[in-house]
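Late entry, evening session. Most of the bench is empty. Finally got around to the prediction I had been postponing all week. Sequence below, unchanged from the version circulated by S.P.
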Amino acid sequence: MRRVSDDLKGRYPEVPWRDIAAFRNVVVHDYLSIELSLVWGIVTERVPELQKQIERIVDEARENRP
């Protein structure tokens, strides 16, 4: 999450920024030990809510664009 500013993260504390970064690190660096059932659980249970959160962030950014 290095490319997401601390300001943005601070405005949306409900987004699990650290969890997202940690999951990405496992997928990229430790992919041989990933449990597919864990990935499936994340995709089916957590991604839909995350999608809503990100869509809201994008919408608000568009509204506040000069």
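Two things to note before I forget:
The chain has three helices and no strands.
The mean pLDDT is 93.
Will write this up properly tomorrow.
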